């Protein structure tokens, strides 16, 4: 069965190295050798991570002379964003907000007595 | 028979709040409270109608950096202040159920059961949700989403939400 797009996006995000690559790319586009430098892994390994990210539409790669710099792709992020908006940036986050909101309610209610 | 066998794809979550039961119930059921915390940060609240009674609904819209999204709850059973059961799904602005914007494999309807119990001045909430009248494919998709729903990627998705909010 073909993996649904959003499943692919989350599978791609599940790996810490790939998340670190995305964090680096949020500062601007970078080549494989630039991405490999801060990590203790080979350029081929970086390339494989980039392929997963590209398939998940979290990054896109252009061709500039011999290089293929990677940059963030809004498509995958938009899909993940729709999902996150539905889940209130996840249940734990939503329930944290409720907790804060309840603390505010209690403060307001408590001053009358 | 286990709960999971009767309700394939079941998602469970529980949480304790340092607040009285009546207050937690109010936060979930009253017009003046629910919209204040339901939507995620970085989302603009587009409006809502809340008719909290069996047969009533909660219809709300929000705009995130990813786009506009409407949701609908259809309340089936209410036993205040301890239990509520409702169907929920994505909708359009007119309040009709539609497919999720992020996937055609997400179930059209998810059944939700929330229970609230007071224990030593705190309120324990137990939430269960499962795909309603869904295909095997929809159930599999929903089950695959359990980990990210729980925030199981170590806060990554919250960071991603922050990132998207800043776009």
Oligomer: heterodimer
Biggest sheet statistics of chain B: 7 strands, antiparallel
What portion of the residues of chain B fall into strands of 2 or more residues?
A: 35-45%
Helix content percent band of chain B:
25-40%
List the helices and strands of chain B in order.
HEHHEEEEEEHHH
Structural class of chain A: mainly alpha
Strands of chain A, total number? 2
Strand content of chain A: 5-15%
Q: How many helical stretches of chain B?
A: 6
Shape of chain B: globular
- Name the average pLDDT of chain B: 87
- Greatest chain-chain contact: A-B, 39 and 50 residues
Low-confidence stretches of chain A: none
Identify the strand order in the major beta sheet of chain B: 1-7-6-5-4-3-2
Radius of gyration of chain B: 16 Å
Q: For the terminal residues of chain B, how far apart are their CA atoms? A: 48 Å
Q: Gap between N and C termini of chain A, in Å?
A: 61 Å
Question: What overall geometry of chain A do the principal axes of the alpha carbons give?
Answer: elongated
Task: Explain briefly what this protein structure is.
The complex is a heterodimer of chains A (about 110) and B (about 170). Chain A contains six helices and two strands; from the N terminus they run ααααββαα.
How is this fold's topology laid out?
The complex is a heterodimer of chains A (113) and B (167).
Chain A: H1 5-13, H2 16-25, H3 32-36, H4 43-55, E1 59-61, E2 70-72, H5 74-86, H6 91-110
Antiparallel strand pairs in A: 1-2
Helix pairs in contact in A: 1-4, 1-5
Chain B: H1 3-6, E1 11-17, H2 21-29, H3 34-38, E2 44-50, E3 57-64, E4 67-79, E5 83-91, E6 110-119, E7 122-131, H4 136-144, H5 146-150, H6 156-165
Antiparallel strand pairs in B: 1-7, 2-3, 3-4, 4-5, 5-6, 6-7
